[in-house]
Amino acid sequence: MPGDTTDTLGKGDVVSNESLANLLKEERRFAPPADLAAAANVTEAAYTQADADRLGFWAEQARRLTWATEPTETLDWSNPPFAKWFADGKLNVAYNCVDRHVEAGNGDRVAIHFEGEPGDSRSITYAELKDEVSKAANALTELGVEAGDRVAVYLPMIPEAVVAMLACARVGAAHSVVFGGFSADAVASRIQDADAKLVITADGGYRRGKPSALKPAIDEAVAKCPQVEHVLVVRRTGQDTAFTEGRDVWWHELVDRQSAEHAPQPFDAEHPLFILYTSGTTGKPKGILHTSGGYLTQAAYTHHAVFDLKPETDVYWCTADIGWVTGHSYIVYGPLANGATQVMYEGTPDTPHQGRFWEVVQKYGVTILYTAPTAIRTFMKWGDDIPAKFDLSSLRVLGSVGEPINPEAWIWYRKHIGGDRCPIVDTWWQTETGAMMISPLPGVTETKPGSAQRALPGISATVVDDEAHEVPNGGGGYLVLTEPWPSMLRTIWGDDQRFIDTYWSRFAGKYFAGDGAKKDDDGDIWLLGRVDDVMLVSGHNISTTEVESALVSHPSVAEAAVVGAADETTGQAIVAFVILRGSASETDTLVAELRNHVGSTLGPIAKPKRILPVQELPKTRSGKIMRRLLRDVAENRAVGDVTTLADSSVMDLIQSKLPSASSED
């Protein structure tokens, strides 16, 4: 998912002596398919229009929504960095995502094809979704939820999660969705920070073939949260569930008996829509606040533009969880505002078999697929023969989100999933940006494997050095956003000063994303990962992303994670952890070959000092590699906090291998 940002680095902390080394050269190019380009939703003209009149461009995109009161002012930037977009306009977000499609005669169109992990499925039309959202909105009202209240949502990937979020939006309550894998303590801290009065959860969900309980974590969390008045519980698995009389309410008993009539009330464009928590390096989680009009404008526009969505014919599938921002913007709000038909899948990609994703693509005739590099690298590791068993010919656009994608993974995705014909849109954005910011357009851009390339129409992004000067083509440094954008975070919930300090203090007047980036000779942008993942080796700043990409380009390597470890001679030494492909065997000869391969690809300065073949890498539940823990291993320190890992036993396995790790001579 889009990068969790870290609290701001001090001036000169990372890219200190010299710009980020621009080591990786990628020469492959892929033109847009002619048929797609000929009928594309967005053409080169959009860039020209937005460059000439940025605010006029966004005012036009806002008109794609249905407003109860049309806005007359596009942007109020009188008190930076606090933006107001379309501030005198009024709208109801849920009306835009559901009712207006029914009123336009599209009530019979499928909104959601739900595929449960156990194999249960149901298809929900827009008319049915409108009824469900209306009933849930009436239920929230019965429970005392009012506009301006906060509601915590802790649900598996089931349609009720979408219904709950839209019901909150309909009544003007901000939702705070917490990913279903988080611990009771993590849930409690988020409920407390948002001061939520209602929690919506389920008895459990299905994961890897068996029920996984959710309600016990909520019971433990709510015990620390006296402000919670009710817990609304969806019955998904039928597990025995503790029930607190007077507090806990079954969804099927409360929601199902409500009227399907509910008049949506319009709210100000700047009315809070949701709070989504992202981790900081220190202290409590940061509640990222998004509001209604600007957020929905950009989520809907980017979904329409970047995926070339044709709602009458496309079947769209974003494989993210709704607990992450990708699920908010590109499962719930963007697609539904555009009247899309989409697939929603509950489980994991390898249950009951490793071809599950491709089985789903084949079953529903998916045309647009949006997934993460970590998933793509996993599919590579499992082998080319698995997707080859399924008919993927319905696909026409492929998307990537969550982290920079290695060029070899990009090529594999295009070849084995996209049949060497589907354009890939490699999208950069964050929880904080709310919607896509940098991405190719499928009918316009000649794509480059591994590059997000160009800021979208209406978005202003560049790469600067330590002194905030824009770097020339070929240079590297920090990614910054230089103009406000409609879906930008409005603040950190309850902490305006932290908002200013974290994002706006590093470079005056610019939003600092916390990511390293480089410009190639054409001026296209290549993301290089979090700035804390830059290594300083013998005075050269080297990106972990580039070294990882070089390793993955070797036929024996399925996945790689690289860290810098303290070294007496070079300041930092490069240490690589690699997962080998199925047929490769771990030998000193192979390790030497991999080190030389990196040297020949990027130059001798980038050769890893140590390479450790491992079975798995430590990843968070959203699929991000926890390099911090690998750094602990590489520097022989006690391993830090592992509570956010999907599988904490991975670290024991890695540490047990350490004594046998091959090092350079």
Automatic annotation (TrEMBL):
Transmembrane segments: none annotated. It catalyses: acetate + ATP + CoA = acetyl-CoA + AMP + diphosphate. The modification N6-acetyllysine is found at residue 624. One of its GO terms (cellular component) is cytosol. One of its GO terms (biological process) is acetyl-CoA biosynthetic process from acetate. Its cofactor is Mg(2+). Mg(2+) binds at residues 552, 554, 557. InterPro entries: Ac_CoA_lig, ACAS_N, AMP-bd_C, AMP-bd_C_sf, AMP-binding_CS, AMP-dep_synth/lig_dom, ANL_N_sf. ATP binds at residues 402-404, 426-431, 515, 530. Acetylated. Deacetylation by the SIR2-homolog deacetylase activates the enzyme. Residues 104-485 form the AMP-dependent synthetase/ligase domain. One of its GO terms (molecular function) is AMP binding. Its EC number is 6.2.1.1. Residues 44-97 form the Acetyl-coenzyme A synthetase N-terminal domain. Keywords: Acetylation, ATP-binding, Ligase, Magnesium, Metal-binding, Nucleotide-binding. Residues 546-624 form the AMP-binding enzyme C-terminal domain. CoA binds at residues 207-210, 326, 538. Catalyzes the conversion of acetate into acetyl-CoA (AcCoA), an essential intermediate at the junction of anabolic and catabolic pathways. AcsA undergoes a two-step reaction. In the first half reaction, AcsA combines acetate with ATP to form acetyl-adenylate (AcAMP) intermediate. In the second half reaction, it can then transfer the acetyl group from AcAMP to the sulfhydryl group of CoA, forming the product AcCoA. Belongs to the ATP-dependent AMP-binding enzyme family. This is Acetyl-coenzyme A synthetase. The gene is acs.
